[in-house]
Amino acid sequence: MKACYPGTFDPITKGHLDIIVRAASVFDEVVVLIMNNPRKKCVFSLEERKEMIEKSISKDNVKVEIGEGLTVEYAKKIGAKVIIRGIRAVSDYEYELQQATANLMLDEKIETLFFIAKPKYSFLSSSVVKEIAENGGDISSLVPLEIADYITNKLS
Ligand code: ADP
Description:
The protein is an alpha/beta fold. It has six helices and five strands. The protein is 42% helix and 21% strand.
């Protein structure tokens, strides 16, 4: 079965990567979907975000795509029956519940499944990474090794 993991990934963190690896061991194929959301102000371009994810993971059953519009429509277009999301804390739950319910209303054949964050990544977000890097801090334990220097150089 094919699943998609939509998000902003500005940039990908070790928390995202952990979800991707775990999802790839459950599903036949996982498409990481960088959703172009004009309402979100991103630091990295869609292409930069795609390149960073591709550099971070090389698994035959993981692909990276850029999408826009409604996630369920994109999921349908690529033949994914499952939308994967991650939950770090109760604070994520409310937003995720709203999104998943809206998506269910749009298409009840597409299910949203949640992976809970590992405790060591439960505080980790793209915003935390950006804030630390912008202020000269060390992000090497927070993002995939292959892209740590790239992020540091871009943001410092
Ligand atoms: P979005 O803007 O769509 O929330 P993000 O890139 O911030 O995109 O996150 C994509 C998904 O990954 C969300 O479901 C989010 O809760 C989840 N996520 C983000 N960081 C982590 C983490 N450290 N551990 C587990 N899941 C995470």
